[in-house]
Design a protein that fits this description.
CATH architecture of the largest domain in chain A: 3-Layer(bba) Sandwich
Distance between the termini of chain A: 42 Å
Oligomer: homotetramer
Number of domains of chain A: 2
Largest sheet of chain A: 9 strands, mixed
Strand order of the largest sheet of chain A: 1-17-15-9-11-13-14-5-16
CATH superfamily of the largest domain in chain A: Putative cyclase
CATH topology of the largest domain in chain A: Glucose Oxidase, domain 1
Radius of gyration of chain A: 20 Å
Helix content of chain A: 10-25%
Strand content of chain A: 15-25%
Chain lengths: ~300, ~300, ~300, ~300
């Protein structure tokens, strides 16, 4: 039962929040200072339900993942067919969503999402991640990201529309963006890979560009609170949709597991790229799914 | 297929966005000016999966609604039982969520959620709301709310811990809050009703306090972009969990249907009440569920 | 509330049961007479959950359909990781299934599944088939099939391992099987098409063999109660997974809609083919899903 | 990929099928001999979807379990609202089901459902029951039950309409039924408890009557292949919906775990009771859910 100890307005304890501890009233106030135009961009892909139609195949996603399903439990069609209005004339539509965030839509990873050995980030026991949810480091512990966003538009730096599947982003690419990265910033990295979907699923599934291990370390050294990208795994993927790096160089291991840096994947960054802005207020507010390994999100860039 | 016309960073056309059209670069810049402390509060209830345990009964929800279900498709228990790590030692947890937002958790209503007659808000045909989603006025059209929040802490005004089930909030209560409400503000109204859950589900299900029709009109006249509350239906509910007002006085009809004012329900406002703050930056970023009647959200107050 | 009128042991009224009305105590007794060996064969594909693994792609299904999802809400891994046993030592596994039967697994169609114009089979209004289920002709009305099965092993007649995608079964094929078809029999028609999956999904998706319209009429004239096949749509499909026939010749229209003959699709008939038996007791017991358009089933052949 | 080794018409290996190994061609032929009238009764509760309506509360189920959800992905309402027919005029209804069988509807338990210590029935390692399903003793291994049913109508023996929550069925009750129980029979035990739902959920949830440990042993000694009942747990339950017996006397431990006797629960036996028949052909064909802990079923009594 709900009792005096509920404080749902706040987050998990510091030892389960990783790099989000870098967010302080001071960084929030500084980040708010990045709002200059007042425009708001959404950085998410649509969640397109796979039910009777082939429609979901028109949104980028990893091969073989269970796609989102969206169901209406009452809708306008029912009233057209004769369903009686409620009381004096109210009509309503109601629905349900089934979603498996990783690989299917824009989401933020929980710190329990990946690990090696017997321990999650910060030594939390991996055995606490069970069928009824993660007892440690779930997405409910993370809390929201309200931070200064810094935008690494790598295709722009390289003079291409988008990276190729085999491309890996190196520290030199990040340096070339000439951004003033500060502790607590949210690093937003564009590969342009969602544009590969224009050529069909097979083109998108041919692999994915992403950060090299060194680029991951470059970001970790700068104490960012989050790394967000428009690819599916921050690091690159091969055609079997797997990372090729060894354990020491795996991007999830470097960022999420060792440094507690949260990851957000499968963002849509095209309008942000068009804006020309490289710093802004970045906001991501994961659903407080207890014990969740991730949450679908609609990240925002307030320019 | 994804093509040149995708502009997922932006929202639906103006005629499907209702009062969110009141949000402009100017209001966003003004709202950002409400950030003074840099503290961030979450305004959502936890999403607690109903699977093997009775746990979900410990979070406020309407009687008889399908509760959220959260499933792990691989977890730490599997590795403890012998599942092999990926490649050189990676382990991962993955999960799925089934959620029916209305009545079960903190959510934002789409403009297609309620109507009367044959037309949705703004004359959109209700017959376009079908089994595969709302073709008009879905939550994917709304876009995010980045606005100045104004907080009506009604129990504080009335000198009580929380309102009673039969209480209705009148314009005088809102006036007594002495807030300077401006066009495009997000009105956040506290009833304290989630605290009734301390006494068990039956206490919570005995009815709900909420806005009176006149209070709804008071807010609509002030051109707020959104009304958010910690009750389940903005207006009050009787013990059968229904609104008692006629069509002309129903809060969803007044706010959502006639004025296109978005509604957010089942917020958790207790820490916000403790903060003493009455204006702040309010952010809500609904998932871009195509044709959705609502989205679960984690609204934020940046103080 | 459950009351005196519940008679869940029986089925829907005669006007919603179609050709299953042909099943009488006499036909059941006669069908039982087909049991000669006492062997029992299952005629269903496995239901393989699509969660973290690519496993479901190893079971035949139509392209683009939402695959079954199977989730464990508590399992042996949890106990291996430290979950406490119940009471003095009980441990349990519990799970959930999400299934969309058409096109993904062995199932039986309800009479509400397909129609033309404004009326379902037998003149029932199509407008009663709404978001909360089919008010008429749902699978809950059908009741079970306990009938004499007659087996048309068409590849055997044609001297091939399996039919090709463009093959259509003609009345002559059915005649060649030389079976004594009686009113109330369940006609089981083998195409061998699931074997195409050996060559991968694309081979299976290249189209499907099936009954021609004339063969459908041939069966309807003989008053069978059900037509079951190992293809996905009884009739043939083209490479876009659609039927090519016009309305008058569509197999679902001929059998399900005009004659109320139930259809069972995506059976697995390979061991039945090996058995050499052409008559047997056929049993299919659909789940009593209220208002369902189909039910997953495990049909049985008792030889 | 599907290959030569697929033999989906048959079941799991003998060491995962428990007492279903007692079913042989001889027992099947003998069971078929129990068909005398040719009438077929269904023994299942309806599966009533919990979506927008309170309807599911009208079907007996255990408190706090996730109720079935049934969604239409296209229906007659959509066509009434203007959805275009397929091709020359075909219309279709399609749907999806979410079901958690234990405690919510008529189902058959897999041998992996309950255990003690580190081993399932027959020494299979419990650690193989993981998030992606039971690698051992899943419901897909069981195969169907085609057996002689023997009916223990305990309320009739005791001269009551239904048993009370605290009643436990003793060997003397089973003896009083004066049935000739043979190896491989399916024992069907009526308590009448679903009738308690007439008085509302709270009456049903007050506890449940069921078999005593000695009655369980009485059945196990007679080598039945399955025990089916209209209560939720074969044994009795207290008001917290738990079994009170210690590990040695728990009905699931005695029957399922030690003897490999499959259990079917939450049957509807009222019409069977009215029939006056005590032997018949009993058929239950679980869905072949790979790694499932149970399957919803519609058991049949062929009288």
């Amino acid at each position: 039962m709900l009792d005096e100890s509920n404080n749902w307005g706040r987050w998990g304890a510091a030892d389960e929040r990783g790099a989000l501890n870098l967010l302080t009233p001071e960084t929030v106030l500084a980040a708010a200072g990045s709002i200059r135009e007042g425009r708001v961009l959404g950085l998410s892909l649509p969640i397109r339900g796979a039910t009777s139609s082939p429609a979901p195949t028109t949104v980028p996603h990893l091969r073989g993942r269970p796609l989102p399903q969206h169901f209406m439990s009452v809708d306008g069609g029912d009233y057209a067919a004769g369903t009686r209005a409620i009381g004096a004339g109210l009509k309503m539509a109601d629905d349900a969503l089934v979603v498996t965030p990783h690989g299917t839509t824009t989401h933020m990873d929980a710190l329990c999402h990946m690990w090696s050995g017997e321990e999650l980030y910060n030594g939390h026991p991996a055995g606490r991640v069970r069928s009824y949810g993660a007892g440690r480091c779930g997405i409910d512990k993370a809390g929201p990201v309200v931070a200064r966003g810094v935008f690494f538009d790598v295709p722009r730096i390289r003079g291409v529309e988008r990276l190729e599947a085999a491309d890996r982003i190196e520290p030199a690419d990040l340096e070339a963006c000439a951004l003033d990265v500060r502790p607590g910033d949210a690093a937003v990295v564009r590969t342009g890979w969602p544009l590969a979907w224009r050529d069909g699923p097979d083109a998108y599934w041919a692999g994915q560009p992403g950060l090299s291990a060194d680029a991951g370390r470059w970001l970790a050294e700068r104490d960012v609170c989050l790394v967000a990208s428009d690819n599916a795994a921050i690091g690159g993927l091969n055609a079997r949709q797997l990372a090729d790096e060894g354990l020491a160089d795996d991007l999830h291991m470097i960022l999420l597991w060792r440094h507690g840096i949260h990851l957000a994947e499968m963002l849509w960054l095209e309008e942000l790229a068009e804006s020309g802005r490289t710093d802004f207020l970045f906001v991501a507010a994961p659903l407080r799914i207890e014990g969740g390994t991730a949450s679908p999100i609609t990240p925002l860039a307030v320019l």
